[in-house]
Amino acid sequence: MINLNTPIDQLNKINQGTLMEQLHIEYLEVADGFVRARMPVNERTKQPMGILHGGANLALAETIGGLGSALIVDLDNYDVRGSQMSANHLGTAHAGWVFAEAHIIHRGKNTHVWNIDIKDEEGRKVSTCRLTNFILKKQPE
Predict the structure, then answer these.
(1) Phi and psi (nearest 5°) for 113?
(2) Handedness of CA 116, 14, 41, 62 (dihedral sign)
């Protein structure tokens, strides 16, 4: 199981064969209630008009908010499931990288709420997102 002591390279390896690998999402830093990652702005993440696709931003945001919750719960006894996601797209990115930072703003017994800001390489905000995760007790098999 993963936790806050899991090395970044190991966290990145668990994305092999997933959407996160397809989008080239890379975790950069994790701490209690915090995750930072980056994603390239390229042919995999752009929409036909040549700018970063809002859906790619949502995938990035849900990825790091989900990881943040997974790192702070006992995954032997609980599952983390995304419940609600919203986003405001505030700017565009045409090339380079975007960087996302997730900060937990509510750590309840049954829910976690994360605020995720996505910025371009110059620090301009591209999107701001809000994610709610359910924390579900695993059922005996």
Answers:
(1) -120, 130
(2) negative
Q: Could you list the residue range(s) of the whole structural domain that residue 28 is in?
A: 8-137
3-state secondary structure of 86: strand
Q: How many domains does the chain have?
A: 1
pTM of the model as a whole: 0.96
The half-sphere exposure of 93 on its side-chain side, counting CA atoms within 13 A, is 28
Report pLDDT for 1.
Answer: 85
CATH number, position 14: 3.10.129.10
Which of 21, 26, 43, 62 is catalytic? The answer is 62
Is 62 labeled as catalytic in the residue annotation? Answer: yes
pLDDT at residue 141 in the model: 76
- Residue-wise pLDDT for 13-27, tens only, equals 999 999 999 999 999
For residue 77 the two structure tokens come to 């006894």
- Cβ 34 vs Cβ 103: under 8 Å: yes
Whole-angstrom distance, CA of residue 118 vs CA of residue 98 = 6
CA angle 128-98-23, nearest 5°? 100
pLDDT for the residue numbered 119: 98
